[in-house]
């Protein structure tokens, strides 16, 4: 058996590294999304108050806006590979029912000033917190105000 020339070994190593780098590409998250489920502790989704998120890219900046119950949110976001980092999110301050308020508090705690792992499969995106809780969101045609 003949040893492989150095050039061939470098080519194989380069192809392998390229394939690994491609597996960590940032998912396309731009557009409108609705939260269809989550495993956040101590809170259940409130019927009629489906949270929505809209990720928008302006120049080299990524932002998020949406509705987490009866209040609107917005703020900066960065995406590096599969790590989605939300800046401090700001919210309107409309009074909500207790259940909707609990939903909003849980979502804001999970997102604001946090880094989540983002995994996209087709039109579904799973955001996983450091504690292992998940937000499952799907592409939506709904327009977020």
From TrEMBL:
Q: Which species is this UniProt entry from? A: Deinococcus oregonensis
- Protein name in UniProt: META domain-containing protein
Q: Where is the signal peptide?
A: 1-21
Q: Which InterPro entries match?
A: DUF306_Meta_HslJ, HslJ-like_sf, Hsp_HslJ-like
Could you tell me which residue ranges the DUF306 domain spans?
A: 31-134
A Pfam match: META
- Keyword set, alphabetical order: Signal
């Amino acid at each position: 058996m003949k040893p492989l020339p150095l050039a061939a070994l470098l080519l194989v190593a380069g192809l392998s590294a390229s394939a690994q780098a491609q597996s960590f590409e940032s998912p396309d998250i731009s557009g409108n999304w609705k939260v269809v489920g989550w495993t956040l502790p101590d809170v259940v989704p409130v019927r009629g108050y489906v949270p929505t998120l809209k990720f928008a890219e302006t120049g080299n900046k990524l932002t998020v806006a949406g509705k987490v119950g009866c209040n609107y949110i917005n703020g900066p976001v960065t995406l590096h590979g599969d790590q989605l980092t939300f800046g401090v999110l700001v919210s309107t301050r409309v009074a909500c029912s207790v259940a909707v308020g609990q939903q909003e508090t849980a979502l804001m705690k999970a997102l604001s000033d946090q880094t989540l792992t983002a995994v996209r499969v087709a039109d579904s995106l799973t955001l996983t917190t450091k504690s292992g809780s998940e937000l499952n969101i799907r592409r939506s045609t709904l327009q977020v105000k």
